[in-house]
Every structure is written in C-alpha cells, then in structure tokens.
Amino acid sequence: MSRTVRKVVLAYSGGLDTSVILRWLIETHGCEVVAWCADLGQGEELEPLREKSLASGASAFVLDDLRETFVRDFVFPALRAGAVYEGEYLLGTSLARPCIIEGMMAAVKAAGADAIAHGATGKGNDQVRFELGALHFDPQVQIIAPWREWDLKSRTDCIAYAKQHGIPVTATVEKPYSMDRNLFHCSFEGGILEDPWAEPPRDMFLLSRDPADAPDAARFVEITFEAGNPVAVDGEALGPVALLERLNAVAGEHGVGRVDVVEDRFVGMKSRGVYETPGGTLLHKAHRAVESLTLDREVMRIRDALVPEYAALVYRGFWFSPEREMLQAMIDQTQRRVSGTARLKLYKGNVTLVGRRSEASLYREDYVTFEKDTVYDQADATGFIRLNALRLRLRAMRDGTSS
C-alpha cells in the first residue's frame, strides 16, 4: 500500500518528460520535489537546468558530478568483460542507469525524502533498471512512475502539456525523437526513428562526423591497458574521464562509432535505437587486441561464452545482482595479465587494428614461424590428430559409415 508522499527526489534531465513530470508531481501529489541530476558528461545540456527546474516549481536543484564514478566503476568493468548486447550495442545507456540510481539514492538519504520519481516509460527498459536499483539500496522506498499512472499517452501529449503550463522544452511534434547523452555514448530513439527502414537524419548526430565528411588522411591511435583497464592514449597517461574524452574526440572526428540496431527490450518488444559510441568503439577493439596476446585460449573461450549473459544482465537492469557480481569477479580475475598496447587506424568511419604488443604476451614467434625452428617437432601433430579423431572413428565404425 502506498504511503503519503511528502518529498520526492526526481531524476531530472531537463528534457521533455522530466520537465512535465516535475510540474505533474506538484499538482498531483502536492509534494515537495527535489530536482536531482547526475553529470555523466552531458556537457552544455546541464547549464540551464538549475534555473529551469526552480522556475518549474522544484524546491531545490542538486547536480552531482558522477563522471569519474561512471567511467571507472561502470564503463570500465563492462569493458573488461567485453560486454556487447546482441552483437552491436555497447550498453551506454544501460551502464549509466545503475550509476545514476546509486547517486540518486544517496541524494534521497541526504534530503530525507520518502520517494523517488523517474521519467521512464512503461514500455521501456529504464523503468526496470531504475527501480531494481532503487529497491536494492532501499527495499522500502516509494517509487512514482508517472508514465504508468497519468493520462498523458504520448510525447505529443507531453509537448501540449508543456505548452499549456509554460514549460520550455526542445522537443517538437515535428522532431520528437528522444536523446540520451553521457561520456560513453549518445542514443537516439522514438519518433521519426520508429520506422526501421528510415535512415537517421544527417543532422541528428552529436558526437561524430558523418564518415563522408571525415578527414581524407587516416589517423593512428595507440591505447595502453593495465590489468584490463585503459590507462594511456598515444603514450600519455590519462585518468578515466580524460581518456574517454580524448578518444571520443579522436574517433568522432573520423566518424567512428555509429550503429543502428533493432534490439530486444526486456519487456518483450523489439525497438530501434541509433547509437554513437566513438571512444568506446576504440576501447572495445583495442582491449580485444591486447587480450588476444595475453589471455589463455581456454580462458578466453569460456569468458566469451559468458559475454552474452553478462551483457543481458546489464541491459535488463541487474547490475546490482549477485549473478552480475559473480561474473564480474571471475572476469576481473582473467584480466590480471591483460596489459599492453594496441594500435588502431581510423579512416572514414572505419577502425582497423594494425598492431598490438605486450610484455605479458603468450605469442611466441619462434613457435609459430613458418621458417626453420628448433622448438617445435611437427611430427608430434600426428598423435595429437589421431587422439582427437578417436571418438569420431569409433562412431563411424559403430554406425557403419566408414568406407
């Protein structure tokens, strides 16, 4: 049974949904609303939010700088896991949500609030991610999800509500797609993108150039890892935020990191999302290259088999689950010797691996060479092949298929 709501902490972005929700909470629940925002690298989008939220009726505006936490504690662990959802999506939004709810629940405690509210719709994944995380931190917290309660049925209705109440928003009926930006990526969905046949508008992208407009000269970049974490770009040691910002700029300049996917939402429907993950695309490629030198074959095979499970857990909102923590502990153990440097070539939207090296490398040129060597007896392969073929031979003899 719901209790009387006295003070609500709203996950506030200043976009269409949360701008309308702020006013709706005050009018519907008669409660105090703290507009809380996480700085995950949205840049200039954050500048007008304080004035805008207070003008809309918020009792306070709180901006928490979580950029370092986001990259170090959420992006990098997923990078160590090689996490990719359904083969293409690097989970930029999925990783941001647990970081946001962790900071938000700390704000709830600091403000003495008794409820939280969010702008996730009843059709999407974010409602699950937010609420699973909130209940992890406080099993008794009240959660208000306006999209599951109010009589506004669409973003077009929200635009009309905002106009009626004098709430300034950037979305329009003609251009109603939704955008979510952080240091790791920028996502676009909804509106004109709901037709999976329609090409995304050329002027929609924020973090990357159109590959056709990228420089005509290729750019080489070197990324260095220690224990599975990126620590330097082109030989310069950088902290997590600065490193990702540097790679975003380099990759974005060359049109790298755009994907257009139809993905399976946790609630059961397919949806179309367009993502820009410039720096993350380089990190994923470079990390895999260093792993190819330093990880044992069987360790990599078993880890790779678990990547879809790990990615699905993150996508579905189970970051704080014991099963994700279990997988993370196992994966991080595999990363202890994943140290080295990968060299990438960026050109017109493409990224190509052109070199890798590591002091912890398992690669031995004296063993793999096609030239004369003194360390490998090729005659040993005869017994190896016959032993591996034994079960196949026995089956053939049993079934009478041998000739």
Q: Main beta sheet: strand number and arrangement?
A: 5 strands, parallel
Q: Note the total helix count.
A: 12
Superfamily at the CATH H level of the largest domain?
HUPs
Portion of residues in beta strands equals 15-25%
Q: Which strand order do you get reading across the main beta sheet?
A: 3-2-1-4-5
- Uncertain runs are none
Q: Supply the CATH class of the largest domain.
A: Alpha Beta
Main location: cytoplasm
Catalytic activity: L-citrulline + L-aspartate + ATP = 2-(N(omega)-L-arginino)succinate + AMP + diphosphate + H(+)
Family: Belongs to the argininosuccinate synthase family. Type 1 subfamily.
EC number: 6.3.4.5
Could you outline the blueprint of secondary structure elements for this entry?
Blueprint: E1 7-11, H1 16-29, E2 32-39, H2 49-55, E3 60-65, H3 67-80, H4 92-111, E4 115-117, H5 126-137, E5 142-144, H6 155-164, E6 178-181, E7 186-189, E8 219-226, E9 229-233, E10 236-237, H7 240-253, E11 258-264, E12 270-276, H8 278-294, H9 297-315, H10 322-334, E13 340-347, E14 350-357, H11 365-368, H12 380-399
Parallel strand pairs: 1-2, 1-4, 2-3, 4-5
Antiparallel strand pairs: 6-7, 7-12, 8-9, 8-13, 9-10, 11-12, 13-14
Helix pairs in contact: 1-6, 3-4, 4-5, 7-8, 9-10
Structure write-up:
It contains twelve helices and 14 strands. The strands form three sheets. A five-stranded parallel β-sheet has the order 3-2-1-4-5, sandwiched between helices. Strands 10-9-8-13-14 form a five-stranded antiparallel β-sheet. The chain folds into two domains: 7-174, Rossmann fold; 185-295 and 337-357, Argininosuccinate synthetase, chain A, domain 2 (Alpha-Beta Complex), CATH 3.90.1260.10. Helix 3 crosses helix 4 (92-111), helix 4 packs across helix 5 (126-137) and helix 9 runs antiparallel to helix 10 (322-334). Helix content is 41%, strand content 19%. A hairpin with a 2-residue loop joins strand 9 and strand 10. It has 403 residues and is an alpha/beta fold. The protein has helices at 16-29, 49-55, 67-80, 92-111, 126-137, 155-164, 240-253, 278-294, 297-315, 322-334, 365-368, 380-399; strands spanning 7-11, 32-39, 60-65, 115-117, 142-144, 178-181, 186-189, 219-226, 229-233, 236-237, 258-264, 270-276, 340-347, 350-357. Homotetramer. Pathway: Amino-acid biosynthesis; L-arginine biosynthesis; L-arginine from L-ornithine and carbamoyl phosphate: step 2/3. L-aspartate binds at residues 121, 125-126. Keywords: Amino-acid biosynthesis, Arginine biosynthesis, ATP-binding, Cytoplasm, Ligase, Nucleotide-binding.
